[in-house]
Design brief:
The protein has about 300 residues and is α+β, with helices and mostly antiparallel strands. It is built from 10 helices and 12 strands. Bound molecules: cytidine-5'-monophosphate. Cytidine-5'-monophosphate binds next to strand 2 and helix 5.
């Protein structure tokens, strides 16, 4: 009888984010902008499976597969290789990314996969990385990667990588209007700088009203506090976003906001029923390419299946 060899593999679920507040300070000498942001994880998730393999490889499945690189420019691959290199592991891994988070959509989908790569390899190799180790590797990979590890609701400062948890109550319902044409994050920050011109930009500060609305679980107040300094820049590069925002406004959304650097538009809804009605209206309006629903807050990147346990 042939021996059956089990390929070891770990699947990690990792969340998209929306910035409830994104306040952008001046561009600093290192090229990044100082931020004060409130990250919020939603249950629109990618699943990343990391398996032992003789050679490095990556496969992407799901509706956005053709837009995602499978070479070393993929953040999940970079993350996995970083753990092997930093901690002296030999061998290689294959990553399979089941992608549901839109690509270049302002929802940190690439960063979410980066976080999953770190968590997956840590589990696969029993590397025993501490939370601080994972955070440091994540910050090295990109500004939004640490939050995808963290999940929940967090205040981000620095370039977005310094995180502190925020106390929240209750859950929120969201509708996301997606576009196939992505927006480049550096291009949106550059447009923000161009539009601001030489006006002095004050240091970014979090809003206390937003913190109070989150603590109280008051969705109406929360809607009034949503804010994104990058929204004018995203709308300047893609003026059609204004039409999508208007459809939400006319069809019961409590509030619409461009998500991060866009072009995804996020609508906060009163409840699931309102979200479903808005999905229908947005689809009929043809002002976006796809509509999805999600709720929050969601957990950060975590192992959901580990074949070593079967
Ligand atoms: O850190 P990450 O690679 O995700 O950032 C992508 C780009 O977004 C940066 O190269 C920079 O142009 C812009 N960015 C910025 N300020 C931040 C975060 C990102 O200017 N705080």
């Amino acid at each position: 009888m042939n021996a059956v060899r089990t390929i070891l593999g770990v699947t990690v679920r990792t969340p998209a984010k929306v910035n409830l507040e994104l306040r952008v300070g001046p561009r600093e000498d290192h090229g990044y902008h100082g931020l004060s942001t409130v990250f919020y994880a939603v249950d629109l998730t990618d699943n990343v499976t990391v398996s032992e393999s003789d050679t490095w490889g990556c496969t992407v499945v799901g509706p956005y597969a053709d837009q995602v690189p499978t070479d070393a420019s993929n953040l999940a691959v970079q993350a996995a290789q970083l753990v092997y290199e930093r901690y002296g592991f030999t061998g290689a891994a294959h990553l399979t990314i089941d992608k549901a988070i839109p690509v270049a959509g302002g929802m940190a989908g690439g960063s979410a996969d980066g976080a999953a790569g770190l968590v997956g390899v840590d589990a696969l190799l029993d590397a025993g990385l501490s939370k601080q180790d994972l955070h440091d590797l994540a910050a090295h990979l990109g500004s939004d990667v640490p939050f995808a590890l963290f999940g929940g609701t967090a205040l981000g400062s620095g370039r977005g990588e310094q995180l502190a948890p925020i106390l929240t109550q209750g859950r929120t319902e969201w509708v996301f209007a997606l576009r196939h044409q992505g927006l480049s994050t550096p291009a949106v920050y550059a447009e923000c700088d161009r539009m601001r011109g030489d006006d002095p930009v004050p240091p970014p500060e979090p809003s206390q009203e937003l913190m109070a609305a989150l603590r109280a679980g008051d969705v109406t107040s929360l809607a009034g506090c949503l804010h994104n300094d990058l929204q004018p820049a995203a709308c300047s590069l893609l003026p059609e976003l204004e039409e999508t925002l208007q459809v939400g406004h006319d069809n019961g959304a409590l509030r619409g906001i461009v998500s991060g650097s866009g072009p995804t538009v996020a609508f906060l809804c009163q409840d699931k029923a309102a979200a479903l009605e808005l999905m229908v209206a947005l689809t009929a309006s043809k002002t976006c390419d796809e509509v999805v629903r999600a709720s929050g807050p969601a957990h950060g990147a975590h192992v959901v299946h580990d074949v070593r346990m079967t």
